[in-house]
Structure formats: structure tokens, C-alpha cells
Write a structure and sequence with these properties.
The protein is of the alpha+beta class and 186 residues long. It has a single domain (4-154), classed as Lambda Exonuclease, Chain A (Alpha-Beta Complex), CATH 3.90.320. It contains seven helices and eleven strands. The chain has helices spanning 6-14, 17-24, 33-40, 43-46, 95-108, 134-153, 170-173; strands at residues 4-5, 56-59, 63-65, 68-70, 74-77, 82-87, 116-121, 126-131, 156-160, 176-178, 181-185. The chain has a five-stranded mixed beta sheet with strand order 2-5-6-7-8. It is an enzyme of class 3 (hydrolase). InterPro entries: Cas4_exonuclease, CRISPR-assoc_prot_Cas4, Dna2/Cas4_DUF83, PDDEXK-like_dom_sf.
């Protein structure tokens, strides 16, 4: 199995079966315009709300640790710390965005002092600052362990049906819908 990426963890937080289909079954999701949007955002637009201003900005740096890799949209360098900044095309703040950012923080802290990360939502012109500390570190490590377990053993999923409606894996997954809930397994 290839390394685990921050995108794998984000997708896992959205639906545990997505990384299973990709990593175990070898089914690739098509790249959408929304996925490309983070790379297209001008750095000055993305960091416009960040105070204090970073002294240096790296675009798409590759971070890695123990077989886990990730490239946040930006890594902001301050006098005494670094903070990943991830751009999201969604209009809503979601747990999977937060978890992906926490993993970028974990990866960045292997080389830098990290105390927070940022999510930028261009459609809302909103920058969300998220603290990063021991609690967030534990959460992301637990989530990585859960993801690894699903990749080894598969999973059963029960989640809101609205998550499944536009999923690129719907035709492989074929969940059973009961009311507003979807049930599926690998």
C-alpha cells in the first residue's frame, strides 16, 4: 500500500469507504474543478486576513512523517512558528477540512513550531483560525489509526444520505438508503 496522504484522511473523515476504494480497490476519483481551486488562489488573497503577516510563504510544500505525506496549499512562516493554510471551495466549515488541516500541522511540527493553522473559504471571504495543540494532535493520530484499520479490514458505514448523493464512488458503493440515512460496507 502506498503512503497515506492528508487528502486520504480528509476523505476518510467525510466517508471511511472513500480511501478504501482508492487505496485497496484501486478506484480513482476524478479531479474536479473544486479540487483545483486551492492551487489557483493567489497567495496575497489567501493571507490578506492573517495577522501578523507571515515573513515567508511556501506554496504546496511536501511534508512527511512515518509514511504519511501532505502538501498544504500554503505554509506560512512567522518569526517564531509556522502555520499551514488550506483553501476550501466549500461554503460550509466541515470536520473533514479541520482534520486535514490538523494533519498538516502534525506534519509541519516535525520541522517547525506550530500553534495554529488556517482554513480560507474564498466564497465567503473568510479566514478561520484553528488552534493546534496536544488535543488536536491526539485527535489526528487517532484518526490516522482508524484510517489504517479500515484500509486493512474494510468498514461498515452509516451516515447521512446527503453525503452519498454526489459522491464519485456511489456506483461502486451502492449504499442502501433508509429515510435520510445511507448504509454501506466495503
Amino acid at each position: 500500500m502506498s503512503s497515506i496522504t492528508a487528502t486520504d484522511l480528509k476523505r476518510f473523515a467525510y466517508c471511511p469507504l472513500i480511501p478504501y476504494y482508492e487505496k485497496v480497490m484501486g478506484i480513482e476519483e476524478r479531479v474536479t474543478e473544486a479540487m483545483k481551486e486551492g492551487s489557483a488562489v493567489d497567495v496575497e488573497v489567501a493571507i490578506n486576513f492573517v495577522r501578523p503577516r507571515p515573513v515567508q510563504v511556501f506554496k504546496k510544500p511536501l511534508l512527511s512523517w512515518k509514511g504519511v505525506t501532505g502538501s498544504p496549499d500554503f505554509l506560512l512562516m512567522f518569526q517564531d512558528s509556522a502555520s499551514p493554510l488550506e483553501v476550501k471551495s466549500s461554503r460550509e466549515k466541515r470536520r473533514d477540512h479541520r482534520l486535514q488541516l490538523e494533519l498538516y500541522c502534525l506534519l509541519a511540527e516535525r520541522s517547525y513550531r506550530v500553534r495554529k493553522g488556517y482554513l480560507y473559504y474564498p466564497a465567503r471571504r473568510e479566514l478561520v483560525t484553528l488552534p493546534y495543540g496536544e488535543e488536536e494532535r491526539r485527535e489526528v493520530l487517532r484518526s490516522l489509526d482508524s484510517l489504517k484499520r479500515v484500509l486493512r479490514e474494510g468498514a461498515k458505514v452509516r451516515q447521512p444520505a446527503r453525503k452519498c448523493v454526489n459522491c464519485g464512488y456511489l456506483r461502486y458503493c451502492r449504499p442502501k438508503f433508509e429515510g435520510g440515512v445511507a448504509y454501506a460496507e466495503s
